[in-house]
Specification:
2 copies of one chain form a homodimer. By secondary structure, chain A is an alpha/beta fold. Chain A is built from 9 helices and 8 strands.
Chain lengths: ~280, ~280
């Protein structure tokens, strides 16, 4: 089965970006996720471990199995958990579409920034749902690049962001998936699905977010697709670079930047049939 | 001094829409606004009283002066407060740009859904700031139509929304003002400005919001500019109506709708000079 392409690439700078992202957003995204003592949790698509350390620290008595399709990413993730002296995570190389686990193996499943990269997100959720015990929870976190707006507004910046959306689309991926979590999780058969938006609002009264999110997370991510967008003929260097300049402009004293992540939690059916 | 045009018009259906809006969003927008006993509060631009009843109920021992430029709107607002048996609100017809109050007359100022309709929002805030006692607070709430996105995504729906933005712009107004609250309030001289987004996230697990917000507030508002947009030659009937249909489509079982209001609170300078 063909492995999905990962549009952000696997370079060190990208790894640093993902770590920066997790450091800045950790409370916004994860403060309400904590698993009980003894529970078995599958983290599907752990990448370089950007979320793994937070997850495992917040649920010290749960046991995590974190999988990824990339051996290099798993190596980074393992080093990150070792540096944090975590002993409740085991790593395993595996493809979400060919997982080596028996049905109902896990109490909980956690999936963060993964579905956007898959051309068949519902199929992935169906597969992961099978691995859950009845009544277990599935937590899914995704961004949505179409949730981005800013001041000063800029057509060039919006087009540069659209380049990222288009590069993802050409790779069979979906950079606008955050807003779709509810219907996707319902379609996959999850029950009691609850989705909550996690909006990142940045103005100059929040200098950590100006630097950590507007510049080093979001704008850096858009900059990261420059070569792919040029190669695909979606844009030209002048237009793209003007958009990046305007994104940096939103990080100045009178600038404002808005982006929204979505977090969905659903339950595996308990399979209770009416009498 | 020329009175600003009010783009939404003054018809009864519009009044109902504003009342629906306040009823649906009241907690999201107002739950953290409460004024101490005895404080004097100016509500600038109360319109038909959509926020006035909530404000006065939540601060029963504060005294409100609610002003608006429209006598008809004030009549509606008076009837709304009388129906709610409120005795702590007095109404007065006045233009924000020519207010009959002495400097430092009020402990607090409240402005909701008003700045978007003014071509000189900073000037309005400067004038209102003068009426505040040192250390008093200014609360400003605005929407931002550029914060709107939905599933299924639709270019026609985005264009219909853009018609509303454009009709406002032609009237010298700004439908994208929510994101600008922080720099506007800082520019007007307010101190300790804090802006927080109030996102309305709607999926079919929230049927009250599907009906009360997606359909009856937002889509109804866009529908309300149909004639103005056609007269201004911004769109044609087929394109506009297709956009409205697609907005209604987002209210179906697998649809999602997102919109964000912004609430800013700042302080009147205490004027303390360094020794």
């Amino acid at each position: 089965m063909k492995t999905e392409a990962y549009v952000h690439g696997y370079h060190r700078r990208e790894n640093e970006r993902l770590q920066d992202q997790a450091g800045t957003l950790v409370d916004l995204l994860h403060s309400d996720t904590s698993y009980p003592s003894g529970s078995l949790v599958l983290e599907a698509g752990c990448g370089v471990g950007a979320q793994t350390v937070t997850l495992a620290q917040r649920s010290p008595d749960a046991r995590f199995t974190s999988i990824d399709v990339s051996a290099d990413s798993l190596g980074e993730a393992r080093r990150a958990t070792e540096a944090a002296a975590l002993t409740n995570v085991q790593f395993q190389r595996a493809d979400i579409f060919a997982l080596p686990f028996a049905p109902e193996s896990f109490d909980h499943v956690f999936v963060c920034f993964v579905l956007e990269h898959l051309s068949r997100p519902v199929e992935a959720l169906v597969i992961l749902n099978r691995l859950l015990k009845p009544g277990g929870t599935m937590t899914v976190i995704e961004g949505d690049h179409g949730s981005t707006y800013f001041h000063p507004d800029s057509g060039a910046a919006r087009i540069a962001i659209q380049c990222q959306v288009e590069v993802q689309r050409l790779a069979g991926c979906n950079a606008l998936i955050g807003r779709q979590l509810y219907p996707l999780m319902v379609e996959a058969g999850l029950e009691a699905v609850h989705v909550s938006p996690r909006m990142v609002y940045v103005d100059s009264s929040r200098p950590d977010l100006v630097d950590g999110f507007t510049r080093k997370t979001f704008t850096a991510m858009i900059e990261g697709v420059r070569e792919s967008a040029l190669e695909a003929g979606i844009t030209d260097p002048e237009a793209f670079d003007a958009g990046i300049r305007d994104l940096h402009r939103t990080a100045e004293a009178d600038g404002v930047f808005c982006y929204t992540f979505f977090k969905g939690v659903g339950e595996k059916s308990r399979g209770v049939k009416p009498a």
